Amino acid sequence: MPDEELVELKFRLYDGSDIGPFQYSPASTVAMLKERIVAEWPKDKKIAPKAANDVKLISAGKILENSKTVSQCKTPFGELPKGIITMHAVVQPSLAKAKTEKKVDEAPKKNICACSIL
């Protein structure tokens, strides 16, 4: 069986900075990529993921599923020889956590009408 060619990936963050590039086996899963992103996330960033589930990976406009492999996510234009594929890494906290935080934030607010009739 011939050696499989490694895929070189880098991850673009919300502010335009990058994590990587790193080389991955085509059999690596998206979940493995997310774990690496969380581990390599710059400490000085205001927004940071707490867990791999907080990261959404986007490639060619599609959100990648955790169970997919790198080879399944490659798009035809990403198959350039020796090319680096850029994926976007977006931090999106889990829905349950976001709802809990929202309830806490809404508690002190009161609806006050500030209309004035002239």
UniProtKB/TrEMBL annotation:
CDD domains: Ubl_MUBs_plant. Pfam families: Rad60-SLD_2 (PF13881). PROSITE patterns: UBIQUITIN_2 (PS50053). It is a lipid-anchor. Residues 7-73 form the Ubiquitin-like domain. SUPFAM superfamilies: Ubiquitin-like (SSF54236). GO terms for cellular component: plasma membrane. Keywords: Cell membrane, Lipoprotein, Membrane, Methylation, Palmitate, Prenylation. InterPro entries: MUB, Ubiquitin-like_dom, Ubiquitin-like_domsf, UBL3-like, UBL3-like_ubiquitin_dom. It is found in: Cell membrane. May serve as docking site to facilitate the association of other proteins to the plasma membrane. PANTHER family: MEMBRANE-ANCHORED UBIQUITIN-FOLD PROTEIN 4, UBIQUITIN-LIKE PROTEIN 3 HCG-1 PROTEIN. This is Membrane-anchored ubiquitin-fold protein. It comes from Escallonia herrerae.
